[in-house]
Amino acid sequence: MRHYDFLVIGSGVAGLSFALRAAEHGRVAVVTKKESAESNTNYAQGGIAAVTSEHDSTERHVADTLDAGAGLCDEEVVRIVVEEGPERVRELIEMGAAFTRQNGEGSPLHLGREGGHSADRIVHAADATGREVERALLSKTRANDSIDLLEYHFAVDLITEHHLGQHVSRVRPDVHCHTTNPPVATGDGVAMAYRAKARVSNMEFVQFHPTALYHPEGDSFLISEAVRGEGGKLFNQGGERFMFDYDERAELAPRDIVARAIDDQLKKRGEDHVWLDISHEPPAEVEEHFPTIREKLDGLGIDMTSDPIPVVPAAHYQCGGVQTDRVGRTSIDGLFACGEVACTGLHGANRLASNSLLEALVFARRALDPAVAYAERHDVPDGIPEWDASGTARPDERVLISHNRSELKRVMSNYVGIVRSDLRLERAQRRTRLLYEETEDFYRRSTVSSGLCELRNMIAVAYLIVKSARMRRESRGLHYTLDHPEPREAERRPTLA
Description:
By secondary structure, the protein is α/β, with parallel strands linked by helices. The chain has three domains: 6-174 and 319-377, FAD/NAD(P)-binding domain, CATH 3.50.50.60; 206-315, Flavocytochrome C3, Chain A, domain 1 (Alpha-Beta Complex); 399-491, Fumarate reductase/succinate dehydrogenase flavoprotein-like, C-terminal domain (Methane Monooxygenase Hydroxylase, Chain G, domain 1). Helices cover 37% and strands 11% of the residues. It is built from 14 helices and 15 strands. The chain has helices at 13-22, 58-68, 75-95, 129-142, 188-195, 225-229, 255-269, 283-289, 291-299, 355-366, 368-377, 399-415, 422-445, 450-471; strands at 6-9, 28-31, 48-49, 111-112, 122-123, 147-150, 200-201, 206-213, 233-235, 274-277, 309-318, 321-323, 342-343, 419-420, 480-481. The chain has a four-stranded antiparallel β-sheet, with helices on one face. A three-stranded parallel β-sheet has the order 1-2-6, covered by helices on one side. It has a three-stranded antiparallel β-sheet with strand order 3-5-4. Strand 1, helix 1 and strand 2 form a beta-alpha-beta unit. The chain is globular. It starts with 5 loop residues before the first strand and ends in a 16-residue tail after the last strand. 48% of the residues are buried.
């Protein structure tokens, strides 16, 4: 049994940012189930949305975020994040994060533009921003003697008074076939928090990135929003540029609109992908702005300076999550959440591009003071039980794990995708219930493994998405249903589980 003042589960930008600050106040453990750099942060291509130019303003960034969020953003939270974001970016630069400059070191930051933004405000490191941010934070983390970085450790459940046979008194009053996420992203944080009875909110709002590479050897590879921001155009396989038929902003419309437009084209035309073309832009500029994407495509025989890129929408980001207040506190006392696991109120029904890293940085800082205060007031309780594996055995039929995982992905892709309906959601709920019962029975009888724990968590998150989607009797933001195709004012509220 190891004792720490702060336990951080996850090694993305939110977890590492918090850990570095908390290390000034006590011992910190950062738990990550793979290598420490393997996180969603590391795969973020686009950048960090922040007002750093005199040609931009806080009010414009706030307005863009509210517009993308389709009426469900918490405006106070939006203002907090937008106003505090630039200082968090400056801190990253001081830590050694090397962002792209206009004319080399010492010159102003090069600012990109992405869908839904009315100004150039995307701070980036070419097209591999997440990797650069992760590198800078990990370097500082590894050098800090107050932080233990525990790689290849799997968090199974959150321990509360319930596990000690006590009444839980300290509760505060207040997956898909095409995905851009790495294999480690299986919803573990949301699932653990839900099993511990934390409040979970807005899980129906799953963001599909409009442009994931469509290629048998390019699964999970994202073609950054910045490609459209730099002039990339979308065409169907008939050579028709179609986005103006859906929105006057065309390719620079918010992600939910672009993803639904592509989905509509694929269904109407019976095609399996559309084309994203930036070959009309100067080759040198394309190579300079997108070296990571260019290298990946070159390896697949696609030259993005002369050839269009085959793309499809793919499950990308969970806008809902564990509900928090304005300093990252969840409904369970002592449990804080920030990053993609959290639902802070910033994103509403649809995340504005590149607001995710910004949110993680801001809330990691805001959670520090209340977390330190909590740690100073509370000791670790006695009587925490050791792990008890009695009555379990190594499973003989691991195929059940892979089979149920594949079936879950098919159910979510077929019934809970970009376009939904009452019938599809009802079918999804029945099937996920059966998968849950089979998997829980298997879990109770078997010694644990990462694959089995991940499957449990994926089923829990899928259930929450379906349950939340069935509760919302309208279309709003990322949730579009054929049976209720328009937004309704009476439904303009968070969905709570």
